[in-house]
Amino acid sequence: MPPVTLSDLPALEVLPELRAALARHPLVVLQAPPGAGKSTGLPLELLSEPWLAGQTIVMLQPRRVAARAVAARLAEGLGEEVGETVGYRVRFESRVSSRTRIEVVTEGILTRRLQHDPELHGVGLVILDEFHERSLNADLALALLREVQGALRDDLRVLVMSATLDPALPGRLDAPLVQGAGRAYPVEVRYLNADPAGRVEDTVARAVREALAAHPEGDFLAFLPGVREIRGAQAALADIDAVVLPLYGDLPLAEQRRALVPDPAGRRKVVLATSIAETSLTLAGVRVVVDGGLSRTQRFDPGTGLTRMVTERVTRDAAEQRAGRAGRTAPGTAYRLWSERTHALLPAARPPEIQEADLAPLTLELAGWGAPDPRTLAWLDPPPEPRVTVARSLLRDLDALDDAGRITGRGAALLELPTHPRLAHLLHDGAALGLGALAADVAALLEERDPLGSGAGADLADRVAALRAWRRRERGGEEVAVLERAERLSRQWRAALRVRPDDTPPDAFAVGRLVALAYPERVALSREGGGGRYLLAGGQGARLPEGDPLAGSPALAVAHLDAVSWKGTGEGRIHLAAPLDPAVLDERAGTRDLVRWDARTGTLVAQRERHVGALVLDARPLRDLPHGARVEAVAGAIRSEGPHLLNWTPEAEALRARVESLRRWRPEETEWPDLSDPALLDTLEDWLGPHLEGVRSREDLKRVNLVPALGALLPWPLPARLDELAPTHLTVPTGSRIRLTYHQGGPPVLAVKLQELFGLAETPTVNGGRTPVLLHLLSPAGRPVQVTQDLRSFWNSSYFEVRKDLRGRYPRHPWPDDPWTHAPMRGTKRRGE
């Protein structure tokens, strides 16, 4: 490829404006279309700026493929090799020298550098490229850089570059915006009449064949969601008159290079790529884009703590990025393999990764930075608190954070290993256990695609055995390219741990021990009945595919798990695991006293358990039951089953009704306690707890006297005032003490024989004379004959109608013509009357 001519890059047209903005402002936003030369031209032009003063430029790229490619293009622009003025650093690989002034790095590299050197000595400008992708590491880098600018380096410049841009971004950053025009050629976009059915790789392959016939010039770029689909399409296109090349992140460098540059023999190319080809990378000569419309990404579920890979439709902005690839060097055509109607329904853009991702790496980075509370940094979008909580819980399990969220010594050691904290923990502690070589193999395989495929069963030890057999030059049915990448990664981990390779057959229990280090919440015990069903320490259910050889293992350490319910079972599917020696669970076991109410038997179950999370290893009855635990369990049962579990005797009901009546009659007197069902249920532990000693069953609960428990809620002098205002009995003219029945706010009922009230003119009252009682006047047989709250009116009118009936039915009882003057009586007529 000939050297790039910088003057041909459209982005250079805005160079004067950009220079002026960077001279005046520490943070600048640049927007320019894809292919304008933002990444491959502007950094070279900024090297001589006075404010840079001989310092270096660090430019972030979101992917390794792009970092290498951009560095190569920049070096070509100077007519140099990579590693001279322009170099790059990616994980486990760097090409820099003492002469290097521009370093193109992946995002994690900058974070490591900031952790070791917060002032970024010798760096004058940091460029955040392709910022529209809003990757988690880009957001973190920006937040850390803004803090560095504010506290340590007011001379440090940050340039945020993007092809597409949220219009609000410059204002949110309080930064000037420099906009550049591109020289993109027109791209004709074609849709299908209807959304296709079948596999996306077959649909893409058919579309490529048809487009090759319709477009005799130019190379093709086809987008597929993942490596499996790329290989399927590659096989389907094996006979076409063009060279078919894959392009994805884990592809060896030489093969990546073949996809990015023109074919040496001048043949047409069909590049089958994942979403890494949407931005950053320039594929010379592409005139036709075939977009399968799908993308594969990870989704993290904070509820389960699990991440799963999902395939989903692209967003509209991603589709625009993909289509734009056809118009970089000449007019082009983009085939979208979906209908125009469907396109209008696609999401406009993906939300920032920080809102969806597993935040364990970010949370550990922040703790290492000295900011365990993310709210202390200036974020574009702050990390969601529920996800931070899940991340902190995991990091505490890994002993990377203390209870206050501060980083521990082990956490600092894990940060030095460029991988997820889970795998860093596996490597760190695996080496300490003398399993360094095995830890390197296991970590490499967990980061890579499965070399054996799902049909080979779920046992991770089989994958380790396959990798070691491949190292011994033994060949099987494995995917050689995957094993090559896994070995390359394992070699890098062995170098970091300073251990030699081990090619002996692996100990399956040792593999399980290592997996348990990375996934402590996914150690699992076989459920009753077996059948490959397991309970994870985190509380989730999971199962192996039917017939999997691991199904006979009593304990597993699970590495890869799909959190989605499998076949409607409500359990996730285990994809990769290893058998676990039960002794590992014994080492981790803690002890807890469990007290719970068994609703089926109506009894308290109290036992001391040895457990690992939700896994109970053994249990024995707990005889000395802590009173607080008893109260908590019984209170929970009452709330769950209802207040009918309590011993509501007439005396208890009466006490509650009297207090509730006064609360309604006298709302101005706020000292009366609320004894309604909701209030009593809310405060069970306070008023009932002291009276639950010895309670272990429903029968015991029914023997608890509620009267003293409720009475204790009445502070002095309310008990005496209760008796005064809402007495339990009233004395009638015969001297009888008759019980009052209260109804929580209505008038209390006095059921009394009519004859005992002869001569009484006024209706008895309670509540300090405010509330007349409701009289249920009874016959000599105790049956109601009249209900009234106006006794005087009754004697003057209704009594005489009642008298006619009662005198005939009860002739031996007095029924005077003048009830006002007749003596009250309890029984029959006295002799002589």
Automatic annotation (TrEMBL):
Alphabetized PROSITE patterns for the sequence: HELICASE_ATP_BIND_1, HELICASE_CTER
Keyword terms, alphabetized: ATP-binding, Helicase, Hydrolase, Nucleotide-binding
Domain Helicase C-terminal: 199-370
Region (Disordered): 811-833
GO molecular function, one term: helicase activity
Signal sequence residues: none
Transmembrane segments: none
Biased composition (Basic and acidic residues): 811-820
Top-rank taxon: Bacteria
NCBIfam families the UniProt entry points to: DEAH_box_HrpB
PANTHER family per record: ATP-DEPENDENT RNA HELICASE HRPB
Protein name as annotated: ATP-dependent helicase HrpB
Organism of this sequence: Deinococcus aetherius
